[in-house]
Input
Amino acid sequence: MNPATDIALEARHLTVLAAGRIVLRDVCLTMHRHEVFGIIGPSGAGKSTLLRALNRLLDLNADYRVHGDVLLAGKTIYASDTDVDDLRAHIGMVFQQPVVFPVSIFRNVIFGVRHQHSVRRSEWPEIVERSLREAALWHEVKDRLHASALKLSLGQQQRLCVARTLAMNPEIILMDEPTSALDAASTRAIEELVLTLKATRSIVLVTHNLAQARRVVDTLACIAVNDGVGEIAASGCCSSILTSVKEEEVRIAADNLIARPLKASIAAS
Amino acid sequence: MRKAMQYAFFGAAALCALVAFAVLVLIIGALLFRGLPAVNWSFLTEHIALVGAAGGVFYNLVGTVILVFTSLVVCIPVALGLALLCACYWRDNKWHGRSLVILQLLNGVPSILFGIFGFIVFVKWLGWGKSWAVGGILLGLLILPTVTVTLIDRIKAVPQKYIDAANGLGLRKSQIIWSVIVPQSLTGLVTGALLGMARAAGETAPIMYTATIFAGATFPAGLRDSPVLSLPYHIFILAQDSFDPGAMEKLWGAALVLVVLVLVLSSLTLPLRMRIRNTHQSQ
Output
């Protein structure tokens, strides 16, 4: 396999400042095609900020400044002539809390697509079915596509958000702790979905759940907080990083304290 | 001591509420007591007669409805544009605060000045003469600050998560405004329009020189030189000029009709408000 075309997204010396203060320092990451790239770390370490720097969603908040570069398929996304809206259509995003719009399930799925002039109106039903099938939601909602999406359970709402992103046919999907608001069954459904989706797309998954990282992540990057600044503490193959972490630390990880013991165990190994 | 303060404070607040409530009850009571005997089917369907001492207020009702609707037709698009400009495009710059100040100033302009302005500009300078269109435009300007500010507040209250999600899908700013912000702010538009409508229906000063006459008008025939009758002006003339005791009863009747008209027009928006609430409820 050609390593150059195998790279989906690359962060090069990415530094993020919020209101003049550094929140993320010198992040270098390489995300390959058809893999689940995990980002793990304690709350407030800047995981979500890093994710939002990858599709320039940070641009919308005037407080944030981004230095360094992000390459999508080898091309910078921080060029002055980048069409940011077009970029965000190619890099889909799923948020922590499911955000469904107060319209029907059908309308939710085509929420982004219907603004794309290249897609004809007659193609909408086909896109809706394809996206909902891909998001493993089709069989649950196919009889009530025109019912309000707010009537769905939280887990279904989150899969609907995935379907809405998939409808745009993105190459990369960024997921910001997509299961943190969900129960165990819905979490399993989303995790299985992630594992199926990586056959066709690349996924960046932010999580603070070590067990989840074990289950779905291929390559893992750990963010640690150093003097109030988030930095990459370790990155590499998920299993090799996580085999050095003991059960006790997994329990602590659930309490959001993952970075310290992880760093210690990596240093020890 | 602290308990006593609490009781005193509650007492004062309750007294204020009572005063406001009592005034409302008195006004509504007087309207019903003195106006109800005058109101019957023929009062609502007949033409004015005997300089207001006999007949009904049909064309006054028609005129006021025309003026109110024209004012909303004028006001709503302008208010929507202005509110979107302020709340979406100027959110982080100095023009946001400035336009709010300008709107407050406009809200503080005495309504008679709108009447004089309209008389000079539309009736004389543009040569439209007395016309319902001039009155509608002036009333629309008069209620513009109320509708706009209500709408701005509602737009600012649209949850950021929707805007983030739409941005995450790669929607452009104009697309986000039309498919996320405007639908979510419709309640604000309806509330603002109701507040404005109630005010527009009752105003006399802006329309007395520009749009309305006391007698002799029916449905408007065109845009220019086409005055209408109206309820507030009818009440004003009867209260000021009439010595006929028969006219006094008609005056109270007209006032009651005006209040009920605002109530009816407000309740017309009820199905719309219910629908908006239902679609947003289960969040």
The two ends of chain A are 31 Å apart (CA to CA). Confidence is low (pLDDT under 50) at residues 254-259 of chain A. The longest strand of chain A covers residues 7-18. Chain A touches chain B through 28 residues (CB under 8 Å).
